[in-house]
Amino acid sequence: MRRLFPIAFVVYFALLAGCTPDAGSPDFTSDPIRFAPVEDAIIQSGRTFTSMFIPRGVTVTSDGNLIVHVEGEVLIEGELHAGGYLRLGSEESISITGVVRSMPLEPEDPDFPEGIRIISAEEITIDDGLLDGGGEIELRIGDPDSLNVEPPPFDWWNSLPETRLGIGHEPKATAAPLRCIVVSGGTIQPVEESAPTGIHGIDGGPGYAGAGVRLTAPSIILGEGATIRSQSGGPGGAASSTAHDDIDIEAGEGGRGGPIELSARDSIQLSGSARLVTGSGGPGGEATAVTNDRIEAPVGWAARADGGDGGGPGRLRLSSGSVPAGLQNLRITIGDGGVGGNAFAQGGDGRQDCNGRVAQSGGNAFATGGDGGDATGNRITLFGWNEPAETPLVDGGNGGAGGEAIALGGRGGRGNEECSGGGRGGVLGAFGGDGGDATLVSPFNDEPYGTGGDGGPGVFRGGNGGPGRHACICPATEGGIGGEGGSTVEDAGGGSGGSGAQPGNAGAAILDSAGNGGWGGQGAFPGWKGSSGEWLGSEEGGVETLAPSFEDGLVGVLCGERARAFSGDFLLSHDSSPPLDRDLLGSGGFERPIRLQVRFTCDAFPETGEETTTEISIESSGNFIRVEGELTASHDAYGFSLRGVGDVAGHQNVQVLFEGSYDPVRLALSGTYTFGLNGTLPTGIVSYTIDTKE
To answer: How far apart are CA 284 and CA 382, in angstroms?
Structure first.
């Protein structure tokens, strides 16, 4: 029945000395009210049996919660499944070599979900068996009639003294036979690796606490390969909102990891490679706040998003009347703090609507990454003895990493006829979450362990000033001044690294095209450049620049009687077949770079006041035909419809059309270039897409 490896037999037998002797497989055949199915069966809750025997290969199930009282011995070699929580009590011994499982329920209490409770008046033995709990798991030597009496919650750490070691004392004398909980080669753990996630919404709910494991008996024995593992905390609920309004949201914090408590009145004995693993803290929820353009207001909508903090790991308590025997055989792993949730906040772009003499300002954006869960405090607490001579292996207990914060400030509105100046860019506040602390000290040797969590990065994007009014459509006028770039708030940037035996790294401030001044508008008199926003953030974790940031804009370009030209890199793509010319088109669909020259000519400032037009021509050194026409004003750019005639691929007088738009701020041009209008190309019309190469 009990499978013992020969190498561990002597040690294991010695550990069992003083416990109630194993009675072997009980004889249920003579008992008419026994529970002893020979094939898969359904069990009803609330029943009392004289004995229980579930043989190997047999699965007994209950559709919902299961409460069973047994007057005699319980032996489970097969499987016992409850559809909810499971409570099993016996007035004699309970032996489990198979599987006892409670299915997770929709938790009612986010802190103390019910799972498995097993109470024996004599002895509980888990020998290569598995306890899989949907919630808290409790094994206790005591009165089986107390099955419905709720155990004290796992909140003992809230009232612990600062000391890590209790007052030593001798084992208590007892007249009653020594009774034990024995776990040899078995595993006790929750079904799910982590507890349920908090509710998602505009504000996220907290993650559920991880289920813990409690063993309470006069003596506790952990044998070869015994593993007790509690559950990690559930992730915090995500928070998200997209609206035509100011937004302020906060994600839920991660649930704390499940604790483990071994409480023995007399002794705890260890052998082999026993392991105790407490649950890690749940990750904080992510927060995403995105605002849309603000239509009638002085500034664009503002967005604030706070990621949830990571939960703390589960704690461990060992309590006995004497120093545990065989501590060197024990491995203790304390769970890590949960990572902080990421945060993304996007302020709305300002519009061209006037606010005084300038366009509308961009919306502010404030993002704060969640802090990583701390792994500090009395995570391992010993009661009942002075500092032991033997030291187990202790690891884990690392602080959680802080969450990333991304603040995307709204762009200031473009200048227009009514308000020539560009709007100010939105204020930027990105605060990476702080890494969790890991200032844990092993109570066995007073040595620190655990690494502090890394601080999360703070990412700054946008918040750029809007461009001033462009006035190169004839008759040209004065270009508008560029808008001021948005500044950061003080101390924004990456989060601090957590403390620990090895401290975590501070998060970097990452600048990605942020806080730049707007370009001055093009015109008869160039518009002045907009000034950059001010960088007031922290440089604790360093500052990394991915794209030019917090720089002044460029002075506007003069337009006038002289022709103005620029050359740009463009991407040419098409999917026509057959191709016009292998050198021109390649074979089949493709995408390749080309270089075009764009030229503007304006008959500007005629004294008669006669309105003229701005002409544009585009040509290439390759096989593309020169096209020309007029540039017309549109909302955010200039549009064009350009035509030309030329020779291509051995064909003469081929008519072409290039329709698209030109953005004078980015010097970006895009559109569709079409060969063979009006049947001038025998192979038919062939079109290309041309875009400015970023």
So the answer is: 30
